[in-house]
Design brief:
The protein is α/β, with parallel strands linked by helices and 156 residues long. A hairpin with a 6-residue loop joins strand 7 and strand 8. The longest helix is centred in the C-terminal third of the chain and has 16 residues. The radius of gyration is 15 Å and the shape is globular.
């Protein structure tokens, strides 16, 4: 069963954090799926991954194209299993996940903005559910300026 990492960001640019998590997944040799609640959030991330040359090209596609199975990163709204057989799942924009789905992933990363009440409430509910179910959870925050692990449960 995979671990679930929670990332509470206080910065305005969630896409930079998602990109950093994707880079870690790629370094581990994993394919990734990124799930958002809204089409707008996915479109913005898609643009960021294509159009920010300072960060380098990041191969990816939005779900529904002709080559979803070959993508190292698949951006999606659906809760269906990704066609690219991803190892890592990144949720942002208030996307939700059922506790029983965690076993399908090496790692789930939940990115949420600390100043967004809806995203914060979803993250709290997920933390409580996963912790009660015995899933290993870790909580990271950048409130102090750098990323720090501030809580964990069920870690071996």
């Amino acid at each position: 069963m995979g671990e679930v990492y929670f990332y509470k960001t206080t910065g305005p640019d969630v896409s930079d954090l998602v990109r950093a998590l994707l880079m870690r997944s790629r370094a581990a040799g994993w394919r990734s799926a990124v799930r958002a609640r809204s089409d707008d959030a996915l479109e913005n991330l898609d643009s960021e991954l294509w159009l920010r040359p300072a960060h380098g090209f990041f191969p990816h596609a939005v779900e529904g194209g002709g080559f979803d199975a070959e993508q190292p990163v698949l951006l999606m709204r659906s809760a269906a299993a990704p066609a690219n057989r991803a190892h890592a799942l990144i949720l942002f924009d208030g996307a939700d996940l059922d506790e029983s789905d965690v076993a399908d992933w090496q790692r789930v990363s939940i990115v949420f903005r600390g100043d967004n009440r809806d995203e914060l409430a979803i993250a709290r509910n997920l933390w409580d559910g996963f912790a009660k179910a015995g899933v290993a959870v870790r909580y990271f925050s950048n409130e102090a300026g750098g990323w720090e692990e501030t809580a964990s449960k069920n870690i071996s």
